[in-house]
Predict the structure.
Amino acid sequence: MKLCRVSYAISPIVSQNRGQAGRRCYVGGVAELARIPARELAQYRQRNEVPVRSALYFGVPAGFAIGFANTGVDYMLMGAGVLAVFAVLGLVHLIRNYPRGINAAQEEFRDGDYPTIAYIAPFIPIAAPLIMAPLSAAGLLPEVELAPPVAGVLSGAWWAFGLPLGIWSMFSQSFRIGRRRINKILEKDPLDGVTEARLELADAHSDILTALVAAGAVQGNTINSTALSKFMKVDLDPLSEQLDALAKADLVKLSRMGLRTAPAKWTITITPTGVRCLYQVGRR
């Protein structure tokens, strides 16, 4: 297994055939995701995250069902019942495609881990009533009464947008945090700590490094070695040997102190050096 292009945070990726030795995977610039097939990363993310399609199949009919039901009008309730049936079918599809959900534990918080809106959003429900109440008391806000179909559609659209987004973001948050950290690492000196020996090791074990990226185990955020082996669908014993080799080269960091001395209890994160080497493999 080899990483065939790391996108979303590291893009674009170009791969070349290496005969029986496998595929050499390349990591390019730091721009937005290039819409090029990223086979290995896409496979890992597909195992680990809710597909957008599955989230929409459930979230859209469920959202409109909630919006219609909130009106309390008989004919809107009938429509909500029909939509609820489609929501159940979507839920079945979602369960059948339920992801592994193996995400890195956020051991530390860094500047830039979250977009600015994430820091503002929690205060919006508090600030909005405080702003609206005086305006309403002063008569500056007109009272608008919407017809039940309009109210149901508007409310349903809000829920139909929020539910799929929430489901998708819950399972992809670790990867997105790791992506932002990768961007920050590569914005600085992309050659820091890069050696020929490390490049060869990163190339040989790019599948492991890719799995760590997909799980969001970047620069301090960690994943358990047992979970990583299940995620990659490989045996733990050979994986632990490869992780040990990567750790000696400072491409990954292993926590194996105290109760974590057994390989099954190691926690792993890809280091900034590992990120840079994965980046430089494609530029040789």
Summary: The longest helix spans residues 148-187.
